[in-house]
Amino acid sequence: MPVMASGDFSIHREGCEEFDDGMPISSLPDEVTSIDDLDCTCWSEFASLEEI
Predict the structure, then answer these.
(1) Cα 47 vs. chain centroid, distance in angstroms?
(2) DSSP 8-state class, residue 51
(3) Cα separation of 49 and 9, whole Å?
(4) Using the 8-state DSSP alphabet, how is residue 48 labeled?
(5) What are the pLDDT digits (tens) for 3-35?
(6) Paired residues of 5 in beta bridges
């Protein structure tokens, strides 16, 4: 499940240690149109959004 960090609103995977506090979200925001839009390395095992 994706998690939105409360500090900078970045999107991470549940269990990612790159952020301190966050809120689980049911789906990725509309602004995320490709895997490259997800900056954190916690998404690196995915090649595309379709895999998520």
Answers:
(1) 14
(2) G
(3) 19
(4) S
(5) 999 989 999 999 999 888 899 999 999 999 999
(6) 22
What one-character-per-residue DSSP string does 8-39 give? T--EEETT-SS-S-EEE-SS--TT--SGGG--
- Residue 22 amino acid letter: G
- Please report the DSSP string for 32-47 in residue order: --SGGG--SGGGTT-S
- For 14, which DSSP code? T
* pLDDT at residue 52, rounded to an integer: 86
Place of tokens 């595309």: 48
Which pLDDT band, with edges at 50, 70 and 90, does 39 fall under? very high
pTM of the model: 0.83
Instruction: Sheet with 11-13: list strands edge to edge.
Output: 11-13, 2-5, 22-24
User: Alpha-carbon distance 19 to 7, whole Å?
Assistant: 8
